């Protein structure tokens, strides 16, 4: 880890150890993450590399007790996630580029309804906790985008923060 990553992990650790409810933890972690998004040497060069086939996940830290993980996601132009939700609270901060998020709800168990679109430029943070965390994220710029994700889960063991993906038709908002 870089020295700045060590400071970031400590700031997150201090918040998580407060043992607040999930929504509050996400809010506090978002505030702890925000100043690190402007640190130019936060990521090593190998942690800034993408893959033309899919967005790339670089695990930066998994807390030994499994209470949180820090991941850098690198998105090349046009890359996106499937529509998904998460196993735990999540905080995202855009480090470089612009990300677009489309949030959804499930209608009658048979379709997705768009609820909100959010465009996040570098420096923006957002946090959420299940339920109500169904979304799709994509690179919204013509250059590489990098975001830092903090999950309230052990990504080292799970391999992902995704609880499930949704392959339902998208209908107009009601």
From TrEMBL:
Instruction: Show the SUPFAM superfamilies listed in the entry.
Output: RmlC-like cupins
Q: Per the UniProt record, which residue ranges are transmembrane?
A: none
Q: Which domain of life does the UniProt lineage start with?
A: Bacteria
- Is Iron one of the keywords? yes
Q: What Pfam families does UniProt report for this protein, alphabetically?
A: CDO_I (PF05995)
Q: Which UniProt keywords apply?
A: Dioxygenase, Iron, Metal-binding, Oxidoreductase
Does Cell membrane appear among the keywords? no
Q: Which GO terms describe its molecular function?
A: dioxygenase activity
What family name appears in the similarity comment?
Belongs to the cysteine dioxygenase family.
Q: What is this protein called?
A: Cysteine dioxygenase family protein
Q: Which organism is it from?
A: Saccharopolyspora erythraea
């Amino acid at each position: 880890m870089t020295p700045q990553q060590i400071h970031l992990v400590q700031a997150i650790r201090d918040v998580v150890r407060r043992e607040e409810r999930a929504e509050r933890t996400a809010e506090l972690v978002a505030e702890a993450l925000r100043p690190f998004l402007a640190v130019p040497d936060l990521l090593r060069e190998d942690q800034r590399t993408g893959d033309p086939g899919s967005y790339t996940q670089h695990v930066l830290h998994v807390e030994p007790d499994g209470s949180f993980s820090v991941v850098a996601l690198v998105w090349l132009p046009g890359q996106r996630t499937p529509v998904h939700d998460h196993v735990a609270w999540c905080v995202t901060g855009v480090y470089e580029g612009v990300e677009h998020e489309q949030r959804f709800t499930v209608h009658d168990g048979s379709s997705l309804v768009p609820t909100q679109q959010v465009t996040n430029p570098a420096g923006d943070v957002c946090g959420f906790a299940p339920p109500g965390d169904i979304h799709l994220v994509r690179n919204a710029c013509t250059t590489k985008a990098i975001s830092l994700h903090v999950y309230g889960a052990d990504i080292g063991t799970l391999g992902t923060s995704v609880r499930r993906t949704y392959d339902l038709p998208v209908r107009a908002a009601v």
